[in-house]
């Protein structure tokens, strides 16, 4: 029996170890912007929040304006594909776990705050596309996690007949868990990812796993 027929999967820190590529690209984007890059520890703390590039820049450069943020994002996105190709890897057993979930009847959707073309390119490179029922990623002027309008405006239209009880959000950061709470769906925190444990545990996820291999046990009961 499938406890959760629809699985919403974060990408960074949940399916793929992207942090080295992200940190490298952030450093290069700050340098290209003429800004001294924050330390890796400061960047990691911001990444643990699971926001977008714009929210990260605004948090670290509060004196910057929208033009500064847009320029920074352009610099980052110009540099990230090479870093991603050279440094990003999937976590162990991702293909096998997704195959098991799909063969058991679960529908899998990537739900990421990452730039759409970027996450799509990474998914294609790793050959995950045929296992997915959809990819929902960051788009200009569209809501992102933890905004509950992501659920009502972007997720539910894909599954108009599904009840909220059929969804499970699987992710590593407080943005994923807060989104699940805001949307009224179940959550599963992956403790091996990029999230800050104190922030994530404070949100009382419904489930917690230490490896992706444990996910089928949550989904199928």
Automatic annotation (TrEMBL):
Pfam families: HAD_2 (PF13419). Its EC number is 3.1.3.18. It is an enzyme of class 3 (hydrolase). GO terms for molecular function: phosphoglycolate phosphatase activity. SUPFAM superfamilies: HAD-like. It catalyses: 2-phosphoglycolate + H2O = glycolate + phosphate. InterPro entries: HAD-like_hydrolase_sf (IPR050155), HAD-like_sf (IPR036412), HAD-SF_hydro_IA (IPR006439), HAD_2 (IPR041492), HAD_sf (IPR023214), PGP-like_dom2 (IPR023198). Pathway: Organic acid metabolism; glycolate biosynthesis; glycolate from 2-phosphoglycolate: step 1/1. This is phosphoglycolate phosphatase. It comes from Gluconobacter morbifer G707.
């Amino acid at each position: 029996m499938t406890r959760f027929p629809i699985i919403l999967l974060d990408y960074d820190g949940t399916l793929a170890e992207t942090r080295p590529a992200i940190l490298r690209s952030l450093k290069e984007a700050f340098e290209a912007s003429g800004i001294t890059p924050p330390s890796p520890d400061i960047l990691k703390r911001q990444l643990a929040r699971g926001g977008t590039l714009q929210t990260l820049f605004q948090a670290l450069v509060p004196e910057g304006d929208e033009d500064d943020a847009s320029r920074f994002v352009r610099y980052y996105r110009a540099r990230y594909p090479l870093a991603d190709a050279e440094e990003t890897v999937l976590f162990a057993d991702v293909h096998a776990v997704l195959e098991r979930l799909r063969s058991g009847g679960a529908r899998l959707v990537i739900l990421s705050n990452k730039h759409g073309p970027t996450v799509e390119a990474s998914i294609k490179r790793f050959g995950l596309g045929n296992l997915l029922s959809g990819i929902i990623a960051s788009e200009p002027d569209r809501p992102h996690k933890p905004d509950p309008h992501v659920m009502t405006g972007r997720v539910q239209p894909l599954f108009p007949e599904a009840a909220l009880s059929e969804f499970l959000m699987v992710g590593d950061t407080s943005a994923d868990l807060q989104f699940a709470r805001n949307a009224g769906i179940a959550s599963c925190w992956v403790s091996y990812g990029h999230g800050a444990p104190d922030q994530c545990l404070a949100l009382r996820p419904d489930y917690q796993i230490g490896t992706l291999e444990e996910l089928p046990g949550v989904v199928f009961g």
